[in-house]
């Protein structure tokens, strides 16, 4: 489970069950750093994970809030986040956090919001590296035609999350 990284910060993990499959929560005292899928693309999220710590308070709180979300009892997360990325990636992830529950945006809309209207592909790349899936709602980004596009958890999981939030009218695009 350990991923090597030049950073000196060390992280711990806890795996939980969810309606979209097993999720691995990763964090430390500085906050939640990742929500990883059972099948992760190698190198998508690079953290120095040193071991399992299922009783870590950050991980327990993330588990509690995710359960509430999946049970339809939570629309917004209130967690201390510790996402590791570039300044541009962090700006994209911050924009994702501003997308309201039950709504979607296009990659272009986020690029324009960031003052970089021609950076649609860069927004897509940053979105694809979002380490804190579901909580930083990268599933709320859709293609310019409203279709579902790539998602680290798979398009089925993306459709499930959007349906859970009442934004399930987005069309699935398989390529």
CATH structural class of the largest domain: Mainly Alpha
What structural class should be given to the helix and strand makeup? alpha/beta
CA-to-CA gap between the ends?
Answer: 30 Å
- Specify Rg, calculated over alpha carbons: 15 Å
Going by CATH, the architecture of the largest domain would be: Orthogonal Bundle
Q: Helicity level, as a percent range? A: 25-40%
CATH topology of the largest domain: Arc Repressor Mutant, subunit A
Question: Can you offer a commentary on this structure?
Answer:
This protein is globular. It has two domains: 60 residues; 81 residues, Arc Repressor Mutant, subunit A (Orthogonal Bundle). Helix 3 crosses helix 4. With 175 residues, it is α/β, with parallel strands linked by helices. The longest helix is centred in the middle third of the chain and has 14 residues. The protein has a four-stranded mixed beta sheet with strand order 3-2-1-4, covered by helices on one side. The two termini are 30 Å apart. It is 29% helix and 18% strand. It contains five helices and eight strands, in the order ββββααβααββαβ. A hairpin with a 6-residue loop joins strand 1 and strand 2.
């Amino acid at each position: 489970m350990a991923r090597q990284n030049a950073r000196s910060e060390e992280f711990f993990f806890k795996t939980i069950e969810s309606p979209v499959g097993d999720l691995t929560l990763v964090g430390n005292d500085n906050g939640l750093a990742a929500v990883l899928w059972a099948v992760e693309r190698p190198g998508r999220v690079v953290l120095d994970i040193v071991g399992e710590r299922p009783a870590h308070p950050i991980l327990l709180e993330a588990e509690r809030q995710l359960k509430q979300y999946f049970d339809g009892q939570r629309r917004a997360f209130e967690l201390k986040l510790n996402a590791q990325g570039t300044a541009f990636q962090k700006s994209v992830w911050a924009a994702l956090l501003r997308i309201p529950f039950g709504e979607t945006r296009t990659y272009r809309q986020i690029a324009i919001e960031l003052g970089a209207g021609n950076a649609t592909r860069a927004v897509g790349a940053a979105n694809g590296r979002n380490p804190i899936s579901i909580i930083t709602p990268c599933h709320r980004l859709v293609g310019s035609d409203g279709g579902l596009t790539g998602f680290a958890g798979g398009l089925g999981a993306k459709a499930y999350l959007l349906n859970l939030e009442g934004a399930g009218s987005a069309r699935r695009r398989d390529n």
